[in-house]
Specification:
This protein is of the alpha+beta class. The strands form 2 sheets. A 5-stranded antiparallel beta sheet has the order 4-5-3-7-6. A two-stranded antiparallel ribbon has the order 1-2. It starts with 14 loop residues before the first strand and ends with a helix. The chain has 7 helices and 7 strands. The chain is rod-shaped, with a radius of gyration of 47 Å.
Length: about 260
Amino acid sequence: MLCLICNEEIFEGDKIQCFNCKEHLHFTCAAFRESVFRKLNKKAKSNWSCSSCKTKNNSDLICKSPSQENNINEISEETLQGVINSVNFMSSQFDSFGKQLKEIILSITELKNENKRITEENLKIKKELNTISNRANILEQKALECHIEIVGIPESKNENYTDTFEKINIKLGTKISVNNIYRIPSKYSDKPRKISVIFNSLAEKNEFMKQAKKEKLIAKHFDASWNNSPVYFNNLMTYSNKTLFYKAKTTAKQN
């Protein structure tokens, strides 16, 4: 059988039948709490009326003549208790729903405020980290101002880096000594490793680079036994500056 209210199937133990219209309902659709419904005796259930019939009966009672007033007294105590229980149940349900709704709204408000605070803190931290990163990059680049890297010089077994640099000095017509010179480890096994040069001063580095940039040079220009691979003299840059420089060159070529 189907429930008059929700039109869904009713299980035997969950149904209640209206005394007047004989329709069946779920006890929950009839506004009964389960604890109350299970306590109703057979007589109370058999005398129960649905809300539609109650409304109709009440209208009929109002219109009855004084001679019919005694029929009102025939309403059983169980029926009245059922109405009271139904009203109390609905009232408690609305009170509970209102309380839960207030708690949910309060929780949402607190979460919004917390999210706003965290977002503002993250933005502040991001800004501070960016400032620290920029300062660190400037300091790192400052520490590299006397460094250059030379690309394309062939490697030889047991090579003397000082002699290698002197060959370059002779070709460029410079007489500059260096603080340190060494090969940089490389991930490419088919190419010679770069040579890192540290000058004693920025002025000496600038003088050297000025001469090195005047013409396109190949390895053979410095030693007849070397090959024709091009040789490049580059300022040593931080990773951030090197990335920026690469992007700038790429954009320039595209334009």
